[in-house]
Amino acid sequence: MARKDHTVSGFAQYKALLAKDVRQELRTREMLVSMGVYALLVLTVYGAALAQVGDRLQVVSFAGGLLWALIVFTSMLGLNRSFAHETESGCLEGILLAPMDRALIFLAKATSNLIFLAAVEVVVVPLFFVFFLSGAELAATTPLIVLPLAVGTVGVAGVGTLLSTMTINTRGKDVLLAILFIPVVFPLLYACVSATSTAFLGVEGTMATFWTSCAIAGCYDVIMIAAAWGLYEFVVSA
Q1: Is residue 128 within 8 Å of residue 70, measured between CB atoms?
Q2: In 10 A of CB 234, how many CB atoms?
Q3: Of 4, 98, 114, 200, which one has the greatest count of Cβ atoms within 10 A?
Q4: Distance in angstroms (rounded) separating the CA atoms of residues 32 and 49
Q5: What does the DSSP 8-state code read for residue 100?
């Protein structure tokens, strides 16, 4: 009689971990609600700060920076909560005892963080347009902001997952994550702000800057996520 192979494939383990995170979030909605409320509060602060700006064109000129500041600070709030369930219930120790590649834990957690952050962006970005850009004459290239938003969100989720893992058992992890996250993600943030601002303004002859910035952001994603993949076993086991 042939012996059955009970080895679980890496893809099946990845799906199980991802499904666990998604089910947990759909049941509690802790990350989605907290990030959504925080984003709305930031938009309110933006509204108060820009209440005296009469010329909408002035807002368009720095709308890319405002939008990415909103995304980055909102994402940090979610990343701080990404391992809350695992640490509070002792689930992480159980996962580490399972015979699986530790990098799969990173991949599943980064994917779930990406899904949750993207879900918040789907709501927040249109609200940003309604609140601050509804009366402005936007360039025809404005829809291109989807590309830097997608590339930037992938990088934020990947790098943020690694750094949140490093800080889960530290004192003052909220502050420590911000101290680590902002400098590490700055090259990505700079490139995405440049690409987003260029798409908003649509000035003739500047689209080369848009594509160059997107390429830089894409290279950052590849390098940093590959590094996180390779280092995650040491980070999560420390």
Answers
A1: yes
A2: 9
A3: 200
A4: 26
A5: S
